[in-house]
Amino acid sequence: MPWGPDQADTLQAFNATTPLPNQEDSSMKTYDLYAIGNALVDSEYEVSDTQLQAMGVDKRHMTLIDAARRSELLGHLTASTARRTGGGSAGNTVVALAQLGGRAFYSCRVADDELGAFYTRDLIANGVATNLTRTLPAPGQTGSCMVMVTPDAERSMSTFLGATAELDHTALHEQDIAQSKIYYMEGYLAASSTGLQAALQGRQMAQDAGVALATTLSDVSMINFCRPGLDAIIGQGLDYLFCNEEEAQVWCGSQDIEQICHQISQLARTVCLTRGPQGCLVLEGKQQTAVPAVPVQALDTNGAGDMFAGAFLYAVTHGESHPQAAWLANQAAGLVVSQYGNRLTPEILGRIKGRAEAW
Fold this sequence. Notes:
This protein has 359 residues and is an alpha/beta fold. It has a single domain (10-38, 89-140, 167-358), classed as 3-Layer(aba) Sandwich (UDP-N-acetylmuramoyl-L-alanine:D-glutamate ligase), CATH 3.40.1190.20. It is built from 14 helices and 14 strands. The protein has helices at 10-17, 23-26, 49-55, 67-76, 89-99, 114-125, 174-178, 193-208, 220-234, 245-252, 257-264, 304-316, 322-337, 346-358; strands spanning 31-36, 40-46, 62-64, 83-87, 104-107, 128-130, 144-149, 155-160, 180-185, 212-216, 238-244, 268-274, 280-284, 287-291. Strands 6-5-1-9-10-11-12-13-14 form a nine-stranded mixed beta sheet, sandwiched between helices. Strands 3-8-7-2-4 form a five-stranded mixed beta sheet. Helix 6 (114-125) links the parallel strand 5 and strand 6 (128-130). The longest helix has 16 residues, at 193-208. It is globular and about 50 Å long. The N and C termini lie far apart (40 Å).
């Protein structure tokens, strides 16, 4: 069972009895990050709140849809121009880490179609190693996500899982997991029975090899409808957990930030609690470090949390302290919300990294 809110000493006991991965061995690893998640091609649309309501889309959250609902939504958007990019939460995270200069491996599943080929090319172009280059694509359709951005910069996602709904243990590469510093499980896999089991099998492989564990709560919808899966991913504790304030509030059933910090900090050695314009809190047991955000004019929040996780994990796998890693992550996430789209260019990320090195 996951750690409960009244187990104040559990994290300290976990830290005392569970050694951190060997740092000398870690420096010799092939990959900084091994991740498993949903392969989705994003199509992003700018819409009004009126359009969103007319389509019956739940604002600010992710909703799983079937092929018929996807066709219905596309019918509402025939006059809109979409921006297409590689996506998926963990996919965005591994690309961010790779663009910053890290080494990443991504396990996922695509179909034998044009979107699947596009997704595979996108990972390769961004320097991410993947099981997709070693296995034949699946039948059916590649997963896709319709991202609708309203003028207040909020993103609402309608996700058709397609082939990634059947992501399973065959996507795992045990040797590559063992040769990674951190194993990262996308929280959205809590919605898929086979994907969840694959993530958990990989988790055990990582634990057996002394690899650090990380995940994200992903979305309020996952907490509301798939919490048992998230509980299983968290297990008896992680090394890194990422969540935003709304997710933490729903997880803890509280609006009180002190109570939230006390409760959520028991899930991992290090918790990054992002708070939008207020920056983030890095929680390590009873210690809290506030790291300020970058003042920006937000246009599109799609991909902000994924970018934060990728930049943070890049920094900690390259010797930076957790506050320094959170500073870099805030910089990167701030820039991604100040534009449309879920990615930054390697050039922009390189400039951010240069400022972080001087910080």
